[in-house]
């Protein structure tokens, strides 16, 4: 049984203490605060540098509905395309609509802990009462980068399914989500958000390695996924060999992860070039949005906001013509509905799924730029990376590098010649050096 320590002392937890579990003021990036504005009868969002975390939270009125982003972002918005990292996994439980509605917050928190224990899931690090429901959080010992979003989303989905009957909200598990800030009021109930359960020390709740967490929650571990990919690759190579074609050494990636990485590669390419010319901006934006849709990490209903965010990262002064994206939006909606296009007896998504070489030609990517990208690389660059991986693997298994081999050989030559100068016969030198006579003869040449 997993050992769980708990503390129920909400007075020791204010908004800043709880936010510091997953936001580090020493890191680069931004966080968002969403607040009700009664005078304007609307919610108002502001984004701040992480270094201002303490002063921002300390300045907030606890008697106003307030939410805080769980992820950290690049730029002053919380669009998922700008996600820098996240250090928390969470589930938002609206349990007041479930058979558990009679439970008080502390009892419900313990019911969640027991469910996780019974299902073999990691025990939550912290559980907050939001004024109506629960915010269940699992802290990570090291935040994961935005590139890992597809696997993070898979974990979120798995946890949501496990806690579905407890009111897990499927629409509140995205990386751009804001959750109610500890210590602030929920005006619907006049209850204040508070911590009702902590696993471990209040100052340092239990935190998890993301890879180990994901392996315990998802149907397949990373190693098992890799084994399946390698088996699939081996089958593909056998088929290709039969057809008489050559297969390159590109590493296999899950389709959603590949698309997400390609979007990030194009963002990186724009950064490497120090900005884009006027005629290039829309091409970059269209392809970035295409890959964002393919990845499954953004919903078409949010596409305008995500596109605006990407456009701002390309050129903050650019007034993006929204009409130029209409065809892509239509394809994205068809993709989400599960529609497919049939071509030569095969079905394809309506979105664009180009080969790497096509992208290299479209964006005129140079070999130097390829080296700084993750997935959009030529066969030559993939071969170079393959050789580097194989070299590292051999080194890890104890194989010598060529430099080490030549150095060792030179040392043995020096030793053999020194023994020869002392008057030893070749046979005696071989015995002293624990090698063969023929090897000594080669060393003395």
From TrEMBL:
This is Replication protein. The lineage of its organism: Bacteria, Pseudomonadati, Pseudomonadota, Gammaproteobacteria, Oceanospirillales. It comes from Halomonas korlensis. Gene3D superfamilies: RepB DNA-primase, N-terminal domain (3.30.70.1790). Residues 381-411 are annotated as: Disordered. It comes from the Bacteria. Residues 384-396 have a biased composition (Basic residues).
């Amino acid at each position: 049984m997993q050992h769980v320590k708990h503390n129920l002392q909400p007075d020791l937890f204010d908004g800043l203490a709880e936010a510091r579990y997953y936001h580090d003021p020493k890191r680069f990036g931004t966080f968002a605060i969403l607040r009700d504005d009664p005078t304007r009868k609307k919610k108002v969002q502001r984004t701040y540098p992480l270094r201002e975390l303490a002063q921002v939270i300390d300045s907030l009125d606890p008697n106003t509905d307030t939410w805080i982003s769980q992820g950290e972002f690049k730029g002053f918005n919380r669009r998922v395309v700008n996600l820098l990292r996240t250090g928390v996994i969470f589930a938002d439980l609206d349990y007041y609509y479930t058979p558990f509605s009679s439970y008080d917050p502390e009892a419900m928190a313990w019911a969640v802990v027991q469910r996780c224990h019974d299902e073999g899931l990691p025990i939550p690090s912290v559980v907050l009462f939001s004024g109506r429901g629960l915010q269940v959080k699992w802290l990570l010992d090291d935040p994961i980068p935005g590139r890992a979003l597809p696997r993070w989303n898979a974990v979120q989905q798995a946890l949501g399914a496990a806690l579905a009957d407890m009111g897990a909200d499927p629409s509140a598990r995205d990386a751009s989500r804001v959750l109610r800030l500890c210590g602030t009021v929920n005006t619907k109930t006049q209850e204040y958000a508070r911590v009702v359960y902590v696993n471990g020390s209040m100052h340092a709740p239990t935190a998890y390695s993301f890879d180990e967490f994901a392996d315990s929650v998802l149907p397949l571990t990373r190693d098992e996924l890799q084994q399946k990919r390698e088996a699939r690759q081996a089958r593909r190579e056998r088929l290709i060999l039969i057809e008489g074609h050559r297969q390159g050494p590109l590493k296999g990636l899950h389709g959603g992860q590949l698309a997400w990485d390609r979007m990030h590669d194009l963002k990186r390419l724009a950064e490497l070039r120090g900005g884009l010319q006027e005629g290039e901006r829309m091409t970059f934006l269209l392809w970035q949005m295409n890959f964002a849709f393919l990845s499954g990490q953004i919903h078409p209903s949010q596409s305008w906001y995500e596109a605006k965010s990407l456009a701002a990262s390309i050129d903050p002064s650019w007034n993006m013509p929204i009409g130029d994206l209409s065809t892509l939006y239509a394809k994205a909606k068809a993709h989400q509905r599960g529609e497919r296009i049939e071509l030569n007896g095969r079905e394809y998504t309506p979105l664009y799924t180009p080969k790497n070489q096509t992208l290299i030609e479209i964006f005129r990517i140079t070999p130097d730029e390829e080296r700084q990208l993750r997935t959009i690389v030529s066969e030559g660059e993939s071969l170079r990376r393959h050789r580097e991986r194989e070299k590292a693997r051999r080194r890890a298994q104890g194989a010598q590098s060529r430099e080490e081999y030549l150095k060792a050989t030179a040392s043995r030559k020096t030793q053999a010649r020194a023994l020869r100068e002392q008057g030893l016969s070749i046979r005696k030198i071989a015995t002293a050096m624990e090698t063969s006579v023929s090897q000594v003869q080669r060393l003395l040449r």
